[in-house]
Amino acid sequence: MKTLSRWLLKESIIIPLISVFAGLIIGAIIMLFGGYNPFEAYQALFNKAFGNVYGIGETIRTITPLIFTGLAVAFAFRTGLFNIGAEGQFIMGSLAAAYVGIMLDLPAIIHMPLAVIVGGIVGGLWGGIAGFLKASRGVHEVITTIMLNWIALYLSNYLIRVHLLEKGQQKSETLAQSSWLSFSFLTDMFNNARVHFGFLIALLCAVVFYVILQKMKQGYELRSVGLNPHAAEYAGINVKGNIMKAMVISGMFAGLGGAVEVLGVTHSVIILPAFQGYGFDGIAVALLGGNAAFGSVVGAFLLGTLTFGATGMKLGAGVPFEIINIVIALVIYFVAARLIFKKLMNALNVNKQEEQ
Questions:
Q1: How sure is the predictor about 350, in pLDDT bands with cuts at 50, 70 and 90?
Q2: Which of 15, 72, 98, 61 is nearest to 301 (CA)?
Q3: pLDDT in tens, 264-298
Q4: C-alpha–C-alpha distance, residues 207 and 211, integer Å
Q5: Residue 255: C-alpha distances to residues 150, 198, 270 (Å)
Q6: Which CA distances in Å does 296 have to 32, 91, 253, 258, 338?
Q7: Beta carbons of 86 and 265 less than 8 angstroms apart
């Protein structure tokens, strides 16, 4: 019990909770100025996200891709890189998984894992392009990953139109059911919500993230390169090789996210008029989670809940989407600016010690 109390009182737990609470309070004040009841709005948000099994299933479905892209961005951050390209890696992963799902005819026990693996590999290779250019030519990864996002968007649309398009539609043919990650018994359990087993793969990826970075020699090298590449090189670590590895692993997380979204939810890929935003939301998730593996899961849970529950605020309390987005942005801002609360807590602790 004492151990649990100490864990709950740790600064790393209290500060994010205070940050979220502060974001919700400021959001409530803005709603009051707009003439809306914040208690009704937050109750409607909570009811939408967790009020019934369908809402819980759809919340899990919303959280799942955010975990993958959050892990992708966080992994790059931890290795000293800034991966803005999770969106493009997500698109390429979904395209590759869809190609395997449509073109191959295999038993489910082979077809489904093969589609997931190919999606992850293609996402990793897409991220590896930026890693290669950074390591070999010194091209900054922010520039290359942004450009690769656009290339992925238009390349995906072109390949769908040429090879996978269903006649008369703006989407591909439906994937073979043997490649699906969604099952009727799971859907029935959540009252027809689109929940699927990709959520378990996402949690497994968080474990893999933690093991690679914290428990393996390779992770020590990756973190060393991220902290100080010059010192790492002096210590005999292959800096260029580790930059490429970091971007490949980061891209694999995002590619897996695209694969499970296609295999678990849409069962086809559409010709995208614009970015879906999963990769960019991954930046917010990584910031919310402090660039940690399980922090990213918590960050995805928070952002996914706010995103899905926001429709409840609109329908249940009449709050317009503009104010809802301001509330979501405030929560993210306060969590990202947790350093403010950390300094306040340190100041309070100093004053307390001086009084003693």
A1: low
A2: 61
A3: 999 999 999 999 999 988 988 888 888 889 888 98
A4: 6
A5: 16, 12, 16
A6: 32, 20, 12, 17, 15
A7: no
CA 66 to chain centre: 3
Structure tokens at 286: 């990584």
CB atoms within 10 A of CB 193: 20
Which residue is associated with the tokens 């707009």?
Answer: 34
The backbone torsions φ and ψ at residue 172, rounded to the nearest 5 degrees and listed phi first, read -75, 175
Q: Are 29 and 163 in contact (CB under 8 A)?
A: no
Asked if pLDDT for residue 21 goes beyond 60, the answer is yes
Instruction: Give pTM, 2 decimals.
Output: 0.89
Instruction: Output phi, psi for 171, to 5 deg.
Output: -145, 170
- In the chain, alpha helices (H): 2-8, 11-33, 38-50, 53-78, 86-103, 108-137, 141-159, 184-189, 198-215, 217-227, 229-234, 239-261, 278-288, 293-317, 321-336, 338-355
- Structure token digits, residue 257: 């996210």
pLDDT at position 10 is 53
